[in-house]
Each structure stands twice: as C-alpha cells, then as structure tokens.
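Run log // design_07
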C-alpha cells in the first residue's frame, strides 16, 4: 500500500455506494407510503380513480432505481489499489445522489398525496400538465417568442 492508496481507502467508496442506495431507498419508501395513503383515502370516495392515481407511486419508486444504478457504478469502480482521492469522489457522488433522492422522495410524497386527494375532489383538473409533461414545451415556446 502506498501513501496515496491506504488500506482504508476503499471504505469511503463503499460508504458512497451504500449511502446512494440507502438514502434514495428511504426517499422512495417515504414517497410511496405518503402517496399510497393519499390513494387509500381517495379510493373511499372515488374507487374508479385508483389506477389513474398510481403515477406518484411509480415516480417515487424510480428514485430507488437511480440510487441502485449509482451504487452499482460506484461498486464496479472499487479496486484493491483505489486511491484516497478517488474513494472520496465516490463518497461524494453517493452522498449527493442519495440525499437528493431522499429530498425528491419527500417532495413526491407530499405533492403526490395532495394531488391524488385533489383529483378525487375535482377530476376535471387532472391532466398531463399536472405532472409537468407540457411545462417544458410551454417554456420553450415562451423563450422562442421572447428571443425572436
């Protein structure tokens, strides 16, 4: 072992992979649970809208997949002679993906719960615009009008 790759260097890379998976899975679990409670409450009033209201649960589940992908990418780059610098880079990447996945899961859970309950009260308001499908298109149109 050299001074640039001590024995404990791989620990930080493994912690990066672990934090990417753990924090993003916690965010996905929270988003799924919070949206699921909204769907359960909504299904009492409007049982025909259950399958249409599953979008926030799917969106929350995707966050865990992002964390898994980054954890696998980090784990595949861990070698016996990994440098301390590269190990800290893996730790930073894992923490950033994991903590942003945690925050995104919280946001999807809160917004999904409110959106599902709102859909039950007023189904006419539910459209693809609610999930940001047309928002980038509208932004690009307004940007194009301003620039030309």
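design_07 sequence
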């Amino acid at each position: 072992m050299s001074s640039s790759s001590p024995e404990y260097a791989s620990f930080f890379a493994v912690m990066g992979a672990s934090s990417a998976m753990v924090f993003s899975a916690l965010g996905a679990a929270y988003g799924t649970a919070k949206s699921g409670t909204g769907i359960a409450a909504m299904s009492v009033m409007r049982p025909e809208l259950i399958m249409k209201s599953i979008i926030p649960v799917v969106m929350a589940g995707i966050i865990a997949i992002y964390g898994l992908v980054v954890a696998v990418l980090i784990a595949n780059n861990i070698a016996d002679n990994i440098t301390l610098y590269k190990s800290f880079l893996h730790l930073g990447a894992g923490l950033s993906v994991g903590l942003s996945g945690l925050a995104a899961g919280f946001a999807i859970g809160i917004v999904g719960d409110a959106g599902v309950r709102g859909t039950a009260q007023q189904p006419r308001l539910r459209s693809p615009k609610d999930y940001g499908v047309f928002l980038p298109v509208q932004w690009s149109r307004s940007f194009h009008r301003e620039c030309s």
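The mean pLDDT is 84.
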